[in-house]
Amino acid sequence: MTDPVDETTGTAQRLDTARRRAASMFQALPEEIHVLGRMFEAAGHELALVGGPVRDAVLGRSSADLDFTTSARPEQTEAILRDWTSGGAIWDMGRDFGTLGGVRDGVKVEITTYRTESYDPTSRKPQVEYGDTLEGDLSRRDFTVNAMAVRLPSLELIDPFDGLADIARTLLRTPVGPQQSFTDDPLRMMRAVRFVAQLGFRIEDSTADAIEELAERITIVSAERVREELVKLMLGAHPRGGLELLTELGLAAHVLPELPALQLERDEHHHHKDVYEHTLTVLDQAIDLESPAGSGGPCEGPDLVLRLAALMHDIGKPATRRFEAGGVVTFRFHETVGAKMTTKRMKALTFDKDTTKKVARLVELHLRFHGYVDSPWTDSAVRRYVTDAGGLLEHLHRLTRADVTTRNRRKARTLARAYDELETRIAALAEQEEIGRIRPDLDGNRIMEVLDMPPGRAVGEAYKHLLELRMEHGPLGEERAVEELRAWWAARQDG
């Protein structure tokens, strides 16, 4: 058991470290930012760096975004920005919400007037009113760790809700009552679990209780915004923790119902493993198999397609579970059903077509390898495996390996050796035949020339036949390919 005194001392030390780290990083802000602060001060307005950039500085992380809040009204901000940019680029697409932006010498800023917001209980769209104080502006932020600001040009840290202490405690709380905060903006509930995944924080108990109570309210938020938060969660350093909370607090039931559906009731003889826990373990193992960020290797982390495929690979199991004679549990064709379910869910969440297609294809293929263990494949079967995977082969390698969660060490070693052997054979065939670019020995034009036929369905069928021969036997050479083509065509005519 942790000694409370030791824990308090540890928190105090982390708090002191955070203060010193933040002060150093604020001093290191680009000179253009200090200039901007002095210009607002000279014009009689307040300016403060706010939100994520302040939190990241306290955590010792750099932030590409520089978000500011000010007492100046938009027209006053615009005049200062024009001077600061010396007539350079300014954008005002967010003017209706009091936000303008500008860039100077490569330093990009966005500045929003202090504001308060009220919400229609049935809508996510806020009614914006300008505020008068920095503290009032901070009170409308999502969490205390994001409700800190640094005044410019003085670099004074403003922390009315003890966000610095919460960072030291790795704790998420809302600046105002959580029920009010989540009623005002339901997306904050998704942001809470996302911060667990990104930063490894934990949600304070009353805040978690409020999420569980109000989880259904997430349904009024647009699918696009929910998807953005889910993607950030999946790309975080701790996605499993975020997904567990998404399920435990009831949010997944509304945004990703396939996940809690994996919590199948175990049969009394335990003939099948816990699919939910298995899925989260597969996700962890898939992440471990990503290439290091910045390495340029295959499946460079964080790899969204691989992670989503690991998350979705078994979602077809609840719909396909059957209890056979002798208490045996089966999930026949769950990969096919799961691929269709994956496509449907990702479309509902407005994922782009390319990502959706890739993830669904990996779900469909994730069981293909298991036939290899029982009976090693012919070269033809190996070629088909590679051809079917296409550009997703490296993802399929990693997903297949991650899908081994058995506690039976002998079985795990057998599966690992079998996949090692398959990868070795794939590499050897690739070297021999450039397997990733397999084509028939004759193209469409040559087929039409040999058979003296016009373009049409028969040309495509002939092409497919030659591709089958190539897959089965490897390169044929033109002379034999022509013979095989003519023989196929003659048999077809006789039939």
Q: Which regions have little confidence, pLDDT < 50, spanning 5+ residues?
A: 267-272
Number of helices: 24
Strand order of the largest sheet: 3-4-5-2-1-8-9
Cα end-to-end separation: 81 Å
Q: Please state the structural category.
A: alpha+beta
Q: Count of DSSP E strands?
A: 13
From the alpha-carbon coordinates, what is the Rg to the nearest angstrom? 29 Å
| Helix percentage | 40-55%
Described by the principal axes of the CA atoms, the overall outline is elongated
Question: What is the residue-averaged pLDDT?
Answer: 89
The biggest beta sheet reads: 7 strands, mixed
Instruction: Give the assembly state of these chains.
Output: single chain
Beta content comes to: 5-15%
Briefly summarize what is shown.
The protein is an alpha+beta fold and 495 residues long. The chain has 24 helices and 13 strands. The strands form four sheets. Strands 3-4-5-2-1-8-9 form a seven-stranded mixed β-sheet. Strands 6-7 form a two-stranded antiparallel sheet.
Structure characteristics:
seven-stranded mixed beta sheet; alpha+beta; 24 helices; two-stranded antiparallel ribbon; 495 residues
Helices and strands in order:
Elements: H1 4-27, H2 31-42, E1 47-50, H3 52-58, E2 67-70, H4 74-84, E3 90-91, E4 99-104, E5 107-113, E6 115-119, E7 126-130, H5 134-139, E8 149-152, E9 157-158, H6 163-168, E10 171-172, H7 178-184, H8 187-199, E11 202-203, H9 205-214, H10 223-234, H11 239-248, H12 252-255, H13 275-288, H14 304-312, H15 317-320, E12 322-323, E13 329-330, H16 334-348, H17 353-365, H18 370-374, H19 379-389, H20 393-402, H21 409-433, H22 444-451, H23 457-473, H24 478-494
Parallel strand pairs: 2-5, 10-11
Antiparallel strand pairs: 1-2, 1-8, 3-4, 4-5, 6-7, 8-9, 12-13
